[in-house]
Specification:
Layout (H helix, E strand, L loop, with lengths): L1 H18 L8 E5 L2 E4 H17 L4 E4 L14 E8 L1 H5 L6 E8 L3 E9 L4 E6 L3 E4 L2 E2 L12 E3 L10 H14 L2 E3 L4 H9 L5 E5 L3 H13 L3 E3 L13 E5 L2 H11 L16
Parallel strand pairs: 3-4, 10-11, 10-12
Antiparallel strand pairs: 1-2, 4-5, 5-6, 6-7, 7-8, 8-9, 12-14, 13-14
The structure holds D-MYO-inositol-1-phosphate (IPD).
D-MYO-inositol-1-phosphate binds next to strand 4.
Protein backbone atom coordinates (compact mmCIF):
# COMPACT_ATOMS: atom_id res chain seq x y z
CA UNK A 1 0.00 0.00 0.00
CA UNK A 2 2.85 2.36 0.86
CA UNK A 3 4.49 2.06 -2.56
CA UNK A 4 1.13 2.54 -4.30
CA UNK A 5 0.52 5.66 -2.21
CA UNK A 6 3.95 7.02 -3.19
CA UNK A 7 3.15 6.30 -6.86
CA UNK A 8 -0.13 8.24 -6.53
CA UNK A 9 1.54 11.19 -4.81
CA UNK A 10 4.23 11.43 -7.47
CA UNK A 11 1.68 11.16 -10.29
CA UNK A 12 -0.35 14.00 -8.76
CA UNK A 13 2.79 16.06 -8.22
CA UNK A 14 3.83 15.64 -11.87
CA UNK A 15 0.45 16.83 -13.16
CA UNK A 16 0.41 19.78 -10.74
CA UNK A 17 3.92 20.86 -11.73
CA UNK A 18 3.15 20.61 -15.48
CA UNK A 19 0.57 23.38 -15.05
CA UNK A 20 2.20 25.36 -12.26
CA UNK A 21 2.88 29.02 -13.09
CA UNK A 22 0.86 28.76 -16.34
CA UNK A 23 -2.43 28.39 -14.46
CA UNK A 24 -3.51 31.60 -12.77
CA UNK A 25 -6.49 33.17 -11.05
CA UNK A 26 -8.10 33.83 -14.47
CA UNK A 27 -8.28 30.06 -15.16
CA UNK A 28 -10.41 29.07 -12.21
CA UNK A 29 -13.94 28.39 -11.19
CA UNK A 30 -14.77 30.38 -8.07
CA UNK A 31 -16.63 28.22 -5.53
CA UNK A 32 -16.84 31.08 -3.05
CA UNK A 33 -14.75 33.92 -1.73
CA UNK A 34 -11.10 32.78 -1.82
CA UNK A 35 -12.31 29.28 -2.73
CA UNK A 36 -11.08 28.15 -6.14
CA UNK A 37 -11.12 25.01 -8.24
CA UNK A 38 -8.81 24.67 -11.22
CA UNK A 39 -8.83 22.31 -14.19
CA UNK A 40 -5.61 20.96 -12.63
CA UNK A 41 -7.44 19.92 -9.42
CA UNK A 42 -10.00 18.08 -11.54
CA UNK A 43 -7.38 16.44 -13.73
CA UNK A 44 -5.41 15.20 -10.71
CA UNK A 45 -8.48 13.89 -8.93
CA UNK A 46 -9.61 12.03 -12.07
CA UNK A 47 -6.14 10.53 -12.64
CA UNK A 48 -5.84 9.33 -9.03
CA UNK A 49 -9.41 7.99 -8.96
CA UNK A 50 -8.70 6.05 -12.17
CA UNK A 51 -5.49 4.49 -10.77
CA UNK A 52 -7.20 3.57 -7.48
CA UNK A 53 -10.25 2.04 -9.16
CA UNK A 54 -8.06 0.03 -11.51
CA UNK A 55 -6.08 -1.42 -8.59
CA UNK A 56 -8.82 -1.58 -5.97
CA UNK A 57 -12.25 -1.68 -7.65
CA UNK A 58 -14.06 -1.96 -4.30
CA UNK A 59 -12.41 1.12 -2.71
CA UNK A 60 -14.29 4.39 -2.51
CA UNK A 61 -12.62 7.61 -3.65
CA UNK A 62 -13.59 10.77 -1.75
CA UNK A 63 -12.12 13.83 -3.41
CA UNK A 64 -12.37 17.53 -2.69
CA UNK A 65 -13.80 18.19 -6.14
CA UNK A 66 -16.52 15.55 -5.80
CA UNK A 67 -17.35 16.17 -2.17
CA UNK A 68 -20.97 17.00 -2.99
CA UNK A 69 -21.40 13.26 -3.62
CA UNK A 70 -19.78 12.16 -0.36
CA UNK A 71 -21.89 9.85 1.79
CA UNK A 72 -22.55 10.82 5.42
CA UNK A 73 -20.98 7.55 6.58
CA UNK A 74 -18.40 5.39 4.85
CA UNK A 75 -18.10 1.67 5.43
CA UNK A 76 -15.19 -0.09 3.77
CA UNK A 77 -11.84 1.20 2.52
CA UNK A 78 -11.66 4.71 1.11
CA UNK A 79 -9.22 7.30 -0.18
CA UNK A 80 -9.54 10.96 0.79
CA UNK A 81 -7.87 13.22 -1.76
CA UNK A 82 -7.10 16.91 -1.89
CA UNK A 83 -5.53 17.30 -5.36
CA UNK A 84 -4.01 20.71 -4.55
CA UNK A 85 -4.18 21.97 -1.00
CA UNK A 86 -3.23 25.63 -1.00
CA UNK A 87 -4.91 26.45 -4.32
CA UNK A 88 -4.59 30.20 -3.84
CA UNK A 89 -0.82 29.85 -3.37
CA UNK A 90 -0.64 27.54 -6.41
CA UNK A 91 -2.50 30.01 -8.62
CA UNK A 92 -0.27 32.91 -7.56
CA UNK A 93 3.00 31.05 -7.95
CA UNK A 94 3.68 30.94 -4.22
CA UNK A 95 5.53 27.66 -3.63
CA UNK A 96 3.52 26.54 -0.60
CA UNK A 97 0.96 23.98 -1.73
CA UNK A 98 0.76 20.20 -1.69
CA UNK A 99 -1.07 17.08 -2.77
CA UNK A 100 -2.76 15.28 0.13
CA UNK A 101 -3.81 11.63 -0.06
CA UNK A 102 -5.09 9.54 2.83
CA UNK A 103 -5.98 5.86 2.73
CA UNK A 104 -8.57 4.85 5.32
CA UNK A 105 -9.75 1.41 6.31
CA UNK A 106 -13.32 0.63 7.41
CA UNK A 107 -15.27 3.57 8.84
CA UNK A 108 -12.83 6.22 7.66
CA UNK A 109 -9.98 5.38 10.03
CA UNK A 110 -6.74 6.72 8.45
CA UNK A 111 -4.05 4.08 7.85
CA UNK A 112 -1.60 5.61 5.36
CA UNK A 113 -1.07 9.24 4.37
CA UNK A 114 1.03 11.20 1.90
CA UNK A 115 1.45 14.96 1.74
CA UNK A 116 3.66 15.82 -1.21
CA UNK A 117 5.23 19.19 -1.99
CA UNK A 118 6.63 18.63 -5.49
CA UNK A 119 8.26 22.07 -5.71
CA UNK A 120 10.52 21.38 -2.75
CA UNK A 121 10.54 17.64 -3.47
CA UNK A 122 9.36 16.91 0.06
CA UNK A 123 7.30 13.77 0.45
CA UNK A 124 5.78 13.39 3.92
CA UNK A 125 4.47 9.89 4.68
CA UNK A 126 2.71 8.38 7.65
CA UNK A 127 1.57 4.89 8.53
CA UNK A 128 -0.67 4.18 11.48
CA UNK A 129 1.24 2.70 14.44
CA UNK A 130 4.49 2.85 12.47
CA UNK A 131 5.60 6.50 12.25
CA UNK A 132 6.01 9.50 9.96
CA UNK A 133 8.75 10.26 7.45
CA UNK A 134 10.05 13.11 5.34
CA UNK A 135 11.54 11.50 2.26
CA UNK A 136 13.79 8.79 3.78
CA UNK A 137 14.01 10.19 7.30
CA UNK A 138 11.79 9.58 10.34
CA UNK A 139 10.28 12.83 11.64
CA UNK A 140 9.09 13.85 15.07
CA UNK A 141 7.20 16.79 16.52
CA UNK A 142 9.06 19.37 18.61
CA UNK A 143 9.22 19.15 22.38
CA UNK A 144 7.41 22.47 22.88
CA UNK A 145 5.03 22.31 25.84
CA UNK A 146 4.22 25.97 26.50
CA UNK A 147 2.61 28.66 24.33
CA UNK A 148 5.41 31.08 25.25
CA UNK A 149 7.87 29.01 23.18
CA UNK A 150 5.42 28.07 20.43
CA UNK A 151 5.49 29.13 16.80
CA UNK A 152 1.90 28.67 15.66
CA UNK A 153 0.18 28.67 12.27
CA UNK A 154 -3.43 29.58 11.60
CA UNK A 155 -5.73 31.43 9.20
CA UNK A 156 -8.50 33.96 9.33
CA UNK A 157 -11.81 32.63 8.01
CA UNK A 158 -12.67 33.58 4.45
CA UNK A 159 -15.85 31.54 3.89
CA UNK A 160 -17.86 33.29 6.63
CA UNK A 161 -17.04 36.86 7.37
CA UNK A 162 -19.22 36.91 10.47
CA UNK A 163 -16.77 34.64 12.31
CA UNK A 164 -13.88 36.97 11.49
CA UNK A 165 -13.98 39.16 14.60
CA UNK A 166 -14.14 36.19 17.00
CA UNK A 167 -11.27 34.39 15.28
CA UNK A 168 -9.22 37.58 15.17
CA UNK A 169 -9.76 38.04 18.90
CA UNK A 170 -8.39 34.56 19.63
CA UNK A 171 -5.51 35.21 17.27
CA UNK A 172 -4.58 38.46 19.00
CA UNK A 173 -4.77 36.79 22.42
CA UNK A 174 -2.52 33.97 21.22
CA UNK A 175 -0.04 36.30 19.55
CA UNK A 176 0.43 37.99 22.92
CA UNK A 177 1.08 34.62 24.61
CA UNK A 178 3.02 32.70 21.94
CA UNK A 179 6.46 33.13 20.42
CA UNK A 180 5.11 34.11 16.97
CA UNK A 181 2.55 33.31 14.29
CA UNK A 182 2.49 32.37 10.56
CA UNK A 183 -0.18 31.91 7.84
CA UNK A 184 1.05 29.14 5.54
CA UNK A 185 -1.94 28.81 3.18
CA UNK A 186 -1.92 25.01 2.95
CA UNK A 187 -3.47 23.08 5.83
CA UNK A 188 -1.82 19.85 4.66
CA UNK A 189 1.65 21.43 4.77
CA UNK A 190 0.91 23.21 8.04
CA UNK A 191 0.20 19.81 9.58
CA UNK A 192 3.22 18.21 7.90
CA UNK A 193 5.39 20.98 9.37
CA UNK A 194 4.01 20.30 12.85
CA UNK A 195 4.89 16.63 12.29
CA UNK A 196 8.42 17.58 11.23
CA UNK A 197 8.95 19.85 14.25
CA UNK A 198 9.24 22.98 12.08
CA UNK A 199 6.28 24.61 13.77
CA UNK A 200 4.74 23.76 17.13
CA UNK A 201 1.00 24.07 16.56
CA UNK A 202 -1.65 24.71 13.93
CA UNK A 203 -5.30 25.62 14.46
CA UNK A 204 -8.00 26.71 12.04
CA UNK A 205 -11.76 27.11 12.06
CA UNK A 206 -13.52 26.14 8.83
CA UNK A 207 -11.24 23.51 7.33
CA UNK A 208 -12.64 20.46 5.54
CA UNK A 209 -11.86 16.74 5.93
CA UNK A 210 -9.81 16.58 2.72
CA UNK A 211 -7.58 19.46 3.89
CA UNK A 212 -6.52 17.62 7.04
CA UNK A 213 -7.08 13.85 6.55
CA UNK A 214 -3.46 13.10 5.63
CA UNK A 215 -1.87 15.73 7.87
CA UNK A 216 -3.64 14.57 11.02
CA UNK A 217 -2.10 11.11 10.67
CA UNK A 218 1.33 12.66 10.04
CA UNK A 219 1.10 14.65 13.29
CA UNK A 220 -0.12 11.72 15.38
CA UNK A 221 2.47 9.30 14.03
CA UNK A 222 5.21 11.88 14.66
CA UNK A 223 4.18 11.97 18.33
CA UNK A 224 1.83 14.97 18.35
CA UNK A 225 -1.85 15.51 19.11
CA UNK A 226 -4.41 16.32 16.39
CA UNK A 227 -8.11 16.80 17.14
CA UNK A 228 -10.93 19.18 16.39
CA UNK A 229 -11.46 22.23 18.65
CA UNK A 230 -13.52 20.11 21.04
CA UNK A 231 -10.72 17.57 21.42
CA UNK A 232 -12.31 14.86 19.25
CA UNK A 233 -9.92 12.58 17.37
CA UNK A 234 -12.64 10.57 15.62
CA UNK A 235 -15.25 11.85 13.14
CA UNK A 236 -12.82 12.80 10.37
CA UNK A 237 -15.57 13.06 7.73
CA UNK A 238 -17.30 15.72 9.79
CA UNK A 239 -14.12 17.69 10.55
CA UNK A 240 -14.63 21.48 10.38
CA UNK A 241 -11.94 22.63 12.81
CA UNK A 242 -8.41 21.48 13.54
CA UNK A 243 -6.10 21.87 16.50
CA UNK A 244 -2.76 20.11 16.15
CA UNK A 245 0.08 20.52 18.60
CA UNK A 246 3.47 18.99 19.25
CA UNK A 247 2.68 17.92 22.83
CA UNK A 248 -0.34 17.25 25.04
CA UNK A 249 0.32 20.23 27.39
CA UNK A 250 0.58 22.62 24.44
CA UNK A 251 -2.58 21.14 22.91
CA UNK A 252 -4.45 21.58 26.21
CA UNK A 253 -3.32 25.20 26.55
CA UNK A 254 -4.39 26.05 22.99
CA UNK A 255 -7.67 24.12 23.33
CA UNK A 256 -8.59 26.48 26.17
CA UNK A 257 -7.74 29.50 23.99
CA UNK A 258 -9.93 28.39 21.06
CA UNK A 259 -12.87 27.39 23.29
CA UNK A 260 -14.70 30.70 22.58
CA UNK A 261 -14.93 29.55 18.94
CA UNK A 262 -16.90 26.37 19.71
CA UNK A 263 -20.17 28.15 19.06
CA UNK A 264 -19.18 28.58 15.40
CA UNK A 265 -19.01 24.82 14.98
CA UNK A 266 -22.81 24.78 15.00
CA UNK A 267 -23.01 27.18 12.02
CA UNK A 268 -22.62 26.49 8.29
CA UNK A 269 -20.06 25.90 6.82
CA UNK A 270 -18.40 24.92 10.09
CA UNK A 271 -21.07 22.43 10.96
CA UNK A 272 -20.93 18.96 9.37
CA UNK A 273 -22.82 18.90 6.07
CA UNK A 274 -24.38 15.87 4.39
C1 LIG B 1 -7.32 25.56 1.84
C2 LIG B 1 -5.95 25.63 2.48
C3 LIG B 1 -5.84 26.81 3.41
C4 LIG B 1 -6.91 26.81 4.46
C5 LIG B 1 -8.28 26.68 3.84
C6 LIG B 1 -8.35 25.50 2.91
P1 LIG B 1 -7.67 24.40 -0.58
O1 LIG B 1 -7.44 24.38 1.04
O2 LIG B 1 -5.69 24.45 3.20
O3 LIG B 1 -4.61 26.82 4.12
O4 LIG B 1 -6.83 28.01 5.18
O5 LIG B 1 -9.21 26.54 4.89
O6 LIG B 1 -9.61 25.47 2.28
O7 LIG B 1 -8.99 25.04 -0.82
O8 LIG B 1 -6.56 25.16 -1.16
O9 LIG B 1 -7.67 22.95 -0.93
Amino acid sequence: MRSFLIELARLAGRIALEHYRTTGVKDVTVKGRGDYVTHVDRRIEEALAHRIRTNYPDHRVLGEETHAEWPAEVAGPCWIIDPIDGTTNYLRGIPQWAVSICYCDDHAVPRHAAVYDPVKKELFLAERDAGSWLNEDRIYVSDCTAPAQALTVSALPFRRQDALADVAQVMVALQAKCDDFRRGGSAALDLAYVAAGRIDAYWELGIQPWDVAGGELLVREAGGVATDFRGRREGLLGRRSILAAATAPLHAALAAEVAPLHRWLDHEPYVKVG
